[in-house]
């Protein structure tokens, strides 16, 4: 069965778990006022998360990407004296219990500034801290290793092979709870499906296939010849893939507002023998997901087990 998901926010609600503050804003405050502000933001994000998860369950959406800014400024030194994990342990337990009860798969995608194959020690230190924060959130919720952290390989630095080796070497520096969750996605400019698949097989972690990125960057491979190898990298975990449609022929790399149903149906019907979670990466978020479902139902196809 194919399950569909969306990233971070639902369009019809202003109450999403991505509220944040800035370093500049909190540094203007006294220590007590600063803590109050940070607590208010995180409490709001928990409230909004529970509301969003209930909406997802009501709409039978069981794959969701948590915004990276869920815990405000979690990796910045301005919050180093704030034990947010301890203060909000009840909230993490509550969210985790709801997620597990309803079989929701949570994932995350650390920011583009987190680059594991960097040759800059300061960037590497910040990357490890960011990955560790994301893993800690899922650990605090008690979620299993299907709650993955998706990253890209990073920069080419004028030597692709050396950059791939550096990723593998610096992967070994990660804490074990991060290693268990980290997965790598092919990108649209530098590291192709073949590059990432070879890397993931080498270091023993899953690969997230991004279909649109493969359409942007490839060497003419028949993608479906590689699907078994990609799925094998997941072991006993449920594979996760990304799907989006190009904005236009002239702006092919950018994501469209919604999913092209013809292309998606053509692709997904070839995967009908597998259990795969597919994250839809498009501007219209949950609305695009529900629109795609309707388009598929009109075509007599329902990979999620919903009535046709």
TrEMBL record:
- On whether ATP-binding is a keyword of this UniProt record, the answer is no
Any signal peptide, and if so, which residues?
none
Any single GO molecular-function term of the entry would be: hydrolase activity
**Gene3D superfamilies of this UniProt entry?**
Divalent-metal-dependent TIM barrel enzymes
Query: Keywords, A to Z?
Result: DNA damage, DNA excision, DNA repair, Endonuclease, Hydrolase, Nuclease
| Statement: the UniProt record of this protein carries the keyword DNA repair | yes
Q: Which GO terms describe its biological process?
A: nucleotide-excision repair; response to UV
Which PANTHER family does the entry link to? UV-DAMAGE ENDONUCLEASE
| Identification of the protein by name | UV DNA damage endonuclease
Q: Which organism is it from?
A: Brevibacillus borstelensis AK1
